[in-house]
Amino acid sequence: MRGGSYSETVNGWQASLTEDGINDVPSFGFCNFRVSCFLQDYHEHAECVEFLFCTRGDCIYETPDGSYNLRAGMVIALLPGKPHRIKTYHRGLRMLWIRIRLPKRGTLMGLPADESDWIVGRLLSLPGRVFKGADSLKRAFRALIDAYNDVPSGTPERKFRLRAAVFDLMLALFSCGGSNPVMPQRSAVGDLVKEMREHPERDYAIARIASSIMMSPTGLITAFKRQTGYSPHAFLLSVRIEISKKLLAAGEPVSVVSDKVGFTSPKRFSVYFRQMVGVAPREFQRLRKLQL
């Protein structure tokens, strides 16, 4: 008899390695969402570290730490007992996933204690983060699926091949997860707000910033608006104008103020200042002197 058996799910399939004597991998599988959906219920996996690798499409994933825009080529890792849910996803979303049960007693997959402790430590250092996957991770999932499908059941080769595939998959996760972690949207927006207030003179190109935190420009703008009530451009402009008012009131020249708060020219600065304050920068300075 070749291969193992699968359980059909609403959006794909799942399988377990427990029948092959590998109790530390209670489930792995593939999801292919055929309809769009919004706001699933929170759920958790009590004893398992869960990894989901998005291979096509995108979704908003929520945890108590914040929201993540999970796009194709990215991985989300979740701690045992950590509530999570897909907030929104669209037709065509595809994900590979695996759950690894951490040992309550004994060691992971029968390894020597020091090796088991090292692997468990690495697994627990990844969850709560989103990171960029790689071709090596896709190949590792493929190798696990192939071994599950093709190697005859009940043979020593099958158990060996499956164990080796699980170890290779974990090593691929460690390699990918060791770099380029992505912050939750809430943290990313908070850091961006802080930077804008402290350094209004800098250039804040949305496409570049979104790419650096593994979000789409639209996703970043939406998250920013949800947290601040403003678009990034409108928020930065308001910060620049508020700081410029303080500098002008202190008597600094308009050209100097314009440069300090990040405008490309005093003329451009004057246009925006008049629009938001109601008077030109020099008139604002004159009126402030009269109030003193």
Write up this protein.
- The mean pLDDT is 87.
- Helix content is 45%, strand content 21%.
- The radius of gyration is 26 Å and the shape is elongated.
- It has helices at 113-125, 135-150, 156-177, 185-198, 206-212, 217-228, 232-249, 254-260, 266-277, 281-291, and strands at 7-9, 12-15, 27-32, 37-38, 48-56, 58-63, 66-71, 74-78, 85-89, 94-101, 129-132, 181-182.
- It is built from 10 helices and 12 strands.
- An 8-stranded antiparallel sheet has the order 1-2-3-10-5-8-11-12, with no helix packed on it.
- Helix 2 (135-150) runs antiparallel to helix 3 (156-177).
- The longest helix has 22 residues, at 156-177.
- It has 292 residues and is an alpha+beta fold.
- It folds into 2 domains: 7-182, Jelly Rolls (Sandwich), CATH 2.60.120.10; 185-291, Homeodomain-like (Arc Repressor Mutant, subunit A, Orthogonal Bundle).
Could you write a compact summary of the structure shown?
This protein has 292 residues and is an alpha+beta fold. It contains ten helices and twelve strands.
Q: Could you state the order of secondary-structure elements as H and E?
A: EEEEEEEEEEHEHHEHHHHHHH
> Quaternary status of these chains?
single chain
**Rg over CA atoms:** 26 Å
Widest beta sheet: strand line-up = 1-2-3-10-5-8-11-12
Number of helices, where a helix is a run of at least 4 consecutive DSSP H or I residues: 10
Mean pLDDT: 87
Shape: elongated
CATH class of the largest domain: Mainly Beta
In the CATH hierarchy, the architecture of the largest domain is Sandwich
The computed structural class is: alpha+beta
| Major beta sheet summary | 8 strands, antiparallel
Helix amount = 40-55%
Distance between the termini: 92 Å
Q: Assess the beta-strand content as a share of residues.
A: 15-25%
Instruction: Name the CATH homologous superfamily of the largest domain.
Output: Jelly Rolls
Return the CATH topology of the largest domain: Jelly Rolls
> Low-confidence runs (pLDDT<50, min 5 residues)?
none
| Count of β-strands | 12
